Amino acid sequence: MDTLNRMQAAIRGRWAVAAIFLANGFLTGAWAPQIPVVLTRLDISKFTLGLLILLFGAGAVTAMTWCGHLISRHGSRTVLRWFGLIGSFGLLVVALAPNVPLAAIAMFIFGGSIGGMDVAMNANAVTVERRLSRAIMSSSHGFWSLGGFAGGALGGLAIQNYGHLAHATVVTALAFAVIAVAVRYLIAEDKPPQTSSGVIGHRKFALHGKPLVYLVGLMALMTMISEGAVLDWAALYLQQELGTDLAVAGLAYAAFSAVMAVMRFFGDGVRNRFGAVTTLRVSALVAAAGMLVAGLAPSPWLAISAFALCGFGIANMVPILFSAGGNQEGMSSGTGMSVVTTMGYSGILVAPSAIGFIAEHSSFGPIFVALSGLLVVVFLMAGLAHRAEFAPDAAPAE
């Protein structure tokens, strides 16, 4: 009976963490249509807006760095409750900021809450995977993509008809309601063993002698650099270098993200069938091929199709790498997840500006070709993600 109750709790926890992925994506997606409003409402330049967005990223990376320490002390369920409930108010705080200094503080807090929530929900998904002895990470990220699509698609219409403050209020209410219900059903990790110095993993960044997690983080970094490049520069590439109009250029990321979202819902079944390492290898090759064709494409429609193929490959790479980071031997899931997510998201936060600088002196085509090389490196390193393979729930590492 205890085993049955434990499994039923894990199944409820699986859908609870999926709901929080959905809410996190919804909050992040709802921020996108608010960006032009910030520009006009605060009467600032694009450069100043860029600095505010950079503060969002700085807040996210800061929280991600500390989140592993907090999860090791308090568990992913408790930390996810904190960041989730606080994070649901982040967009509203930004929408209420009346001037640049307060907007800067609000952006840092918003980014921190979203970043901390991200690490905690991924760590909790790893806990569910261990309890169920099967993958759920890809579909969890699928719910994030679904939430992001809903937040972005509905936000512009809502702001246009009802104003930015009403939009932020409704987003906050919906996100808070979903998170408040979901956190009741989250599952907790088994208690780690005690040592003479306390619970294992209580140090903020206790990774001495564990280089493997950094290599997994490097793979996440290379993967997410590619994802960020498509997000920020694919439309401009099609418009400036392949001569299409803005409406068609926007289809590049739309095709990439739509295919990625769909594939994430199939990813867990594929990973359970063929294994994490094999799935990662094939995905990396497919993504590299898509990026290479996009960089060499002579027409916009071929480039759009190639970006869709790239999304097909990248879709399940990040979930597998996050699972590998959260299952490092001798390390708490929160600590490993903190390292991998921080390194990975740095690719999305830092790489776009570097790519923009290079593109000013070159063109986007060669950059996308070079990025395909990074994905080939991930293919070659795929064996390092073996910790994402599943076996029955193991005892905590000594």
UniProtKB/TrEMBL annotation:
Gene3D superfamilies this protein is in?
A: MFS general substrate transporter like domains (1.20.1250.20)
Q: Which domain of life is it from?
A: Bacteria
Q: Which residues form the Major facilitator superfamily (MFS) profile domain?
A: 212-398
Q: Which UniProt keywords apply?
A: Membrane, Transmembrane, Transmembrane helix
Membrane topology type: Multi-pass membrane protein
| Main localization category | membrane
The entry's localization annotation reads: Membrane
Xref: InterPro entries: MFS, MFS_dom, MFS_trans_sf, MFS_Transporter
Pfam families the record matches: MFS_1 (PF07690)
User: Transmembrane stretches, by residue range?
Assistant: 15-35, 47-67, 79-97, 103-121, 142-159, 165-187, 212-234, 246-266, 278-297, 303-324, 336-358, 364-385
What name is this protein filed under?
Fucose permease
Q: Which organism is it from?
A: Mesorhizobium escarrei
